[in-house]
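Re: weekly structure request thread

Next one in the queue (299 aa):
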Amino acid sequence: MKTLNEIAALIARHVSKDGFHATSIERATLVRSSTLTMPMPSVYRPQLCLVAQGRKDVTMGDHIFRYSPGRYGIVTHDLPAIGHVVEATPDNPYLCLYLDFDPIMLGDLAARVPPPPGTPSPPIGKTVSDAGPGLLDATLRLLRLLDDPAALPVLGPLAEQEIIYHLLAGPDGIRMRHITSSQGRVAQIGRAIAWIGQNFRERLSIERLAAETGMSPSSLHEHFRAVTAMTPLQFQKQLRLQEARSLMLLQDIDVTTAALRVGYESPTQFSREYRRHFGEPPARDIARLRASPALAVVA
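Done, posted below.
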């Protein structure tokens, strides 16, 4: 608990405002929210998320992942999910660290660190676990370097390697190796995820996607759902809706234009699916986000 309190104190000292904050540590981002937030969609990259204070929930498909102080989550593929802060106050804000994985560092360590014993973990691309003392200690050492810029270039990569080591040697070690694997079903699903991410505006053909990944349509559907907790069509729909919401919010684009830009042929269908996904019609949802920007922090 002492180590976790120190981590929370360091994050609080370096971020005085709500939101996401880049740091002098290349792949590290600090997050703060002093209020509860609305469920906000995002595409989570391969990364570590360690919560130091407060609580949040992340929904991916039909899975709900609950974070509390001292719990960490890992993501192995670019995955759309919906997160929101469920416990935070101005006196005790939600605080967390995001650390993107360096694929070169991860690949090198994965080749040298033996996988943990036991039954292989299921292939789902996101999970939440309790952080052990080793992982917390390494995280604290990394964050302390924010106050020692001279030492950061030398000691930062060492602390980052230690964090990845504990992840590889821990309960999610098999799942971590999925990030660097270029073979097997999970790797094929990774290629399917990337293909949809690049082509989500186009009409999705399962037969074409299966051909792109060297799988049969039935095998693609089964393994895609195992990794992402959703079907390829559901995955594409979430990417389309998230992109449309971003266009309307940030570029002040009208509903019909946003729908057409992300690949919908029918603005009516777009509005219906948008309301089902976000809980409000597009115009009302965007007005709510603009009126309460503090509630729109992506957790």
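Residues 232-251 form the longest helix (20 residues). The chain has a mean pLDDT of 91.
Next request, please.
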